[in-house]
Amino acid sequence: MEDKMEDSSDQREMTHQEIPKRQKGGLITMPFIIANESFEKVTSYGLVPNMILYLIKDYHMGVAKGTNILFFWQAATNFTPILGAFVADSYLGRFLTIGLGSICSLLGMILLWFTAMIPQSKPPPCDLLTQSCRSPTAAQMTLLISSLVLISTGAGGVRPCSLAFGADQLDRRDNPKNDRVLESFFGWYYASAAISVLIALTGIVYIQDHLGWRVGFGVPVILMLLSALVFFLASPLYLKQKESKSLLTGFVQVIVVAYKNRNLTFPLPNSSASYHHKGDSKIVAPTDKLRFLNKACIIKNPEQDIAPDGSASNPWSLCTVEQVEELKALIKVLPLWSTGIIMSINLSQNSFPVLQASSMDRYLTKKFQIPAGSYGMFNIISLALWIILYDRAFLPMASKIKGKPVRIGVKLRMGIGLFLTCMAMVVSAIVENARRRKAIRDGFLNNPHAVLDMSALWLVPQFCLNGLAEAFTAIGQTEFFYSVLPKSMSSIAAALFGLGLAVANLLASVVVSIIDNITSRGGKESWVSSNINKGRIDNYYWVLAILSFINLFYYIVCAWAYGPCGEQAMKVSNAGNGLKKEEELSNLGTKVRDEGNGLKDGEE
User: Are 544 and 346 in contact (CB under 8 A)?
Assistant: First the structure.
């Protein structure tokens, strides 16, 4: 009996040793990863719409102060994913970063819930007789700000890594259908994210309005707890990529060393021994693009520059080919990344549509009307519906008609999205011009609170166009970044679109301020006046439309300059696989096939 048990144990041990790590991951992990971020989005996005009311009524803040706090909170939430991406790729790995981010978000939600549950955590109610209100103390503000900081920190850990971590589970470069699998994953990922935001903007907001802050903040705590538990529950199933050295430090080292060696002459074309590379690297010389950075990996004196183990004696005097190619890959995508900023500015126009909707007829029936702040849901609905139709109807039908797999190139999709956001601004301007002219005809020029006999459903087309634009460009950009950047930079690839959104939030405020200052000179009514009937929001939309069309031409130039997405290039892979030579296989990416210890170009 003992012999059988020992044999069984040995057999299990051998079987365990024989199973390669690559067998982990796969579709079985998708529900856990997507559920984790979906719950996080429901909880965090559900707090935003009504938070200004909470600050004004319960913390007795002015509109300006409350708005500024929320502005910095959202800016921090958009910027922290970049820091989280660097931490994940360089130090902790994506699994730990998502896990810690989930815990931080949970702690932030709990602290925010405490502010509603504990009376001493916020100022007492205002005195109705004297109409005086006490301001929050330093301790009360510290508790509130700490909760918001923890929520932003948690978002910085979950959002940039979840997409890349999910792609890691499915990304198999030796699979002929790898590109199609990734494209489908990116689409369904964004569809689930869109549905999560839709639930947040309706369900969570409804609970806060009808059941109060205690329940309204308590439900996000429960959802965030489920988010963390679901993610950690599937830990044994995940394929966990190892983190590499600090990418940020490596980027700085390349720039510094390249500048130090600016006077060096380049080695002869075939003298690969003059470049420093990892011992297991498949590529021993850098590419010719951005050639000035190649001087960072030139070996000047092998005896002094190279340590006995083959590494650089001083990394601030000599870099590897891998470091140089990583920085090149990031620099190369920045122009295309910048083309998404204008679209993000258009998507961030939330205040003006709310003012427009509040002055229009929002009734669908005699008793039911859509809240003015809820029209943004049409953006989310159109995005989610298109993703589902594109993945389940359009592509299969097109493939069946042509008799072979059909896919829309990633750069074409990004271009379509940028064109659609142009049209969204044009439609916005036309609708607003019609609304304003009707308000003036009806004698409401000086009454911005008057409700016109004009259906607010005229606003729906612009939201739908923006939703489709986001479906094409946001998904296309994310897929593009993930395909062309090294595997060691996957989290950064996923965070780049979020960074563009953060930059757009800042630029949107700059654009509004500039237009307000210019158009209000000489005592004139500003285009962005609080009285939308006197203002010219339609002209403001036309400015955004013109900027969008200029950006579209800028994108065409950048896409042409970048060249084919799958062009033959030296691409840095993860540390475990070293560097792989890749050749164009399709419009979206490359497939690499290893044979033995060598490498051959993949063929579609």
Answer: yes
Query: Which position has the higher pLDDT, 23 or 241?
Result: 241
CA 281, CA 167: separation in Å to the nearest integer?
Answer: 24
Cα–Cα nearest to 339, from 253, 238, 413: 413
The full DSSP string for 514-536 is: HHHHHHTGGGPPPTT-SSTTTS-
SS3 content of the chain, % helix, strand, coil (to 5): 70, 5, 25
Q: What is the DSSP letter of 530?
A: S
Q: What single letter denotes the amino acid at residue 477?
A: Q
| 3-state DSSP of 194-234 | HHHHHHHHHHHHHHHHHHHHHHHHHHHHHHHHHHHHHHHHC
Ordered alpha helix ranges (H), 340-376: 340-347, 351-358
What phi and psi, each to the nearest 5 degrees, are found at residue 369?
-130, 150
Instruction: Place 565 in a pLDDT band, splitting at 50, 70 and 90.
Output: low
The answer to whether residues 236 and 270 touch, using CB atoms and an 8 Å cutoff, is: no
The whole-chain average pLDDT of the chain stands at: 78
Alpha helix (H) residue ranges in 29-137 = 30-58, 63-87, 94-117
The pLDDT value given to residue 133: 82
Separation between Cα atoms, residue 574 and residue 64, nearest integer Å: 47
pLDDT at 604 over 60: no
Q: Give yes or no for a contact between 121 and 140, defined as CB atoms under 8 angstroms apart.
A: yes
325 close to 572: Cβ distance less than 8 angstroms: yes
Quote the radius of gyration of the chain (alpha carbons, Å).
27
CB 501 within 8 A of CB 316: no
pTM of the full structure: 0.68
Instruction: Give residue 270's pLDDT.
Output: 64
Name the residue type at position 120: Q
Q: Residue 541: count other Cβ atoms within 10 Å of its Cβ.
A: 25
Nearest 5°: the CA angle 210, 214, 216 is: 50
Distance CA 216, CA 564 (A): 49
Surface-to-core class of residue 206, CB atoms within 10 Å of its CB (0-12 exposed, 13-18 middle, 19+ buried): middle
| pLDDT at residue number 26 | 72
> Which is more confidently placed, 471 or 49?
471
**Whether residue 176 has pLDDT greater than 80:** no
Whether residue 389 has pLDDT greater than 70: yes
For a pLDDT cut of 90, what percent of the chain falls above it? 19
The mean pLDDT of 162-180, rounded to a whole number, is 70
Q: Are 293 and 254 within 8 A, CB to CB?
A: yes
For position 584, what pLDDT does the model report?
31
What is the token pair recorded at 436?
């304003």
Handedness of CA 47, 53, 55, 59 (dihedral sign): negative
By residue count, the chain amounts to: 604
Structure token pair of residue 202:
């309706």
Question: How many Cβ atoms sit within 10 Å of the Cβ of residue 158?
Answer: 30
3-class SS of residue 593: strand
